Amino acid sequence: MKTVLRGLAVRRSTVRSASVLVLIMLPLWPALAQTSPAGTASQPDTAAPPAAEDPLGRSTPFGAVTGFVRAADRADFALAADYLETRMRGARAEELARQLHLVLNRGLSADLDRLSRVAEGNLQDGLPAARDRVGTVGSSSGSVEILVNRIERPDQPPIWLFAADTLELIPTAADELAAFDLEAYLPRPLVETTFLSQPLYWWMTLPLFLGLAWLLGSVLARTLLLLLRPLLRVITKEPDDRTSATVTAPIRLILVALVIRLFSMISPTLQMRQSETRFAAIVAIIGLAWLIVRLSHIVTELRSRRLRQRRMLGRVAVVTLFGRLFSAAVVVVAGLALLYRAGVDLTAILAGLGIGGIGLALAAQKTLENLLGGIMIISDEPVRVGDFCQVGDQTGTVEDIGLRSTKIRTLSRTVVAVPNGQLASMNIENFAQRDKFWLRHTIGVRYETSADQMRYLLAKVRSLLHAHPRVERDGARIRFVGLATSSLDLEVFAYVHASDMAEFLAIQEDLLLRIMDLVDESGTSIAFPSQTTYFVRDKSVDGERREHAEAHVRAWRDRGELPFPDFGPRQAADLQVAVEYPPEGSVLRSR
């Protein structure tokens, strides 16, 4: 029941949003019909110097064509004749203008917004420099190219006029297309009365036109979603239709724009076709941007869900950030496209955005440093949420990796926030990523321990290290390493297989307790710092042994064989393998 109610709410919200969008755009439609983009990228508009203005707007191809259309739409054919390259005057010129207007209304296939807005015209259309193509008109006798020429005038700025060779073909084309003149069958007040440059009958048919376009767009959207719904379920792994509900509205809007564009192809006048084409382009831009943003949200949500399932919580923030940045970029691009369609010069806007971006980057240098540092930490993963690590002089567990800082819960249960910019350049010791733990202890036993007791203890502890299932056998050892001030020192060295610190401490505890049992079993005990005073009768130096040692030294000195500061090469060679190792009785002697 909740799913059904949610679906109904989404549908109501979608319909309400689309309706508001159409209501907002309706008042702007006629205004946008009088504007157009500032030229195309293929034209050198920005490099051309400003031309002297003609009172009738004939300084550019765009101004000449649109000026003629506006004059002819008002039935001012005397003024419209001033846009023709013809020697005719008076009624004959006006009749030619009327015929040209009829031909343009009935058959011109062109986008007037793409006409050049500079005095030189479009220099990259393959035509002579003083000649531009407006479009083509189809007729039974063949296609008629509508061309404009740049006319040089003495002591006056050049102007653009409809070419004379084009006008020669207009009467024949007008006779063929006159049979399809819808306005000839309408009452003259509906045709001649205009509001915002549009005839009255156009405003009367506008609600029906939009309603039909919305109905056809909705039908096409439902049909398309029926085909896409199984694919969306496979991609999103969702059995319900929440995903399809979120993309229904933008898809419907795009299809409505397509229907409006198709309807514009059968509109009776050029002005209506241009208005409908522009409106369809605006609706399509909004719908496409809306659809891309919705798909971005879906992808971001799916990716975040999978990261949470894999317990990679640190990357969720980065995925969300990139999703939001992408959506913001789509909105900005859509806004620039709408401004371009409305005839706004984007050069100054882009330059301002560039300067503003540089200023913002300089002002937010530390913020950007921390943001990029957070992205590097999450992508490189030197630490993850939940890892126990040491960062600088702080030791603790990572609780959160944000876009600005990383929060560490210290051993004293305080939270330290380290800026990501600093963290990315610091040495990080991650204890959680150890594959095994290092066990290293020095055990001191009492000096009263005999050599055989020490051998027994070493053998038993060595057996323990080799036999323990959680100790890595390769490299595990115990060695008698020193005679300390108050103890005989044994070094225990081994690697322990454990998944975390708690498990390692438990295994280490078990090993140390077993070693204590073996120390006790050997008959000795752990030494502790102490000083022992022995009271014994003083024993004089053995004179015979003293004389024997001094005689050996005198003999070495007399023969020049005194082994100080070291043995000579011959003496060292004679001493090689002079000591039996392993000692007598060792288990290794049998190998």
Describe, in plain words, how this protein is organized in 3D.
The chain has 591 residues and is of the alpha+beta class. It has five domains: 2-19 and 202-363, no CATH class; 35-194, no CATH class; 366-433, SH3 type barrels; 437-521, Alpha-Beta Plaits (2-Layer Sandwich); 546-590, no CATH class. Helix content is 52%, strand content 14%. The chain contains 18 helices and 14 strands. Strands 10-9-8-7-11 form a five-stranded antiparallel beta sheet. Strand 9 (405-410) and strand 10 form a beta hairpin. Helix 1 (2-33) runs antiparallel to helix 10 and helix 10 runs antiparallel to helix 11. It is elongated. The two termini are 81 Å apart. The model is unreliable at 1-51 (pLDDT under 50).
Describe the secondary structure blueprint for this structure:
Blueprint: H1 2-33, H2 61-73, H3 77-80, H4 91-107, E1 108-109, E2 131-137, E3 144-153, E4 156-162, H5 164-167, H6 170-177, H7 188-192, E5 194-195, E6 198-199, H8 200-236, H9 242-264, H10 270-309, H11 314-341, H12 346-363, H13 365-380, E7 388-391, E8 394-401, E9 405-410, E10 415-419, H14 420-423, E11 428-430, E12 437-445, H15 451-467, E13 477-483, E14 488-496, H16 501-521, H17 543-558, H18 569-575
Antiparallel strand pairs: 1-2, 2-3, 3-4, 5-6, 7-8, 7-11, 8-9, 9-10, 12-14, 13-14
Helix pairs in contact: 1-9, 1-10, 4-6, 8-9, 9-10, 10-11, 15-16
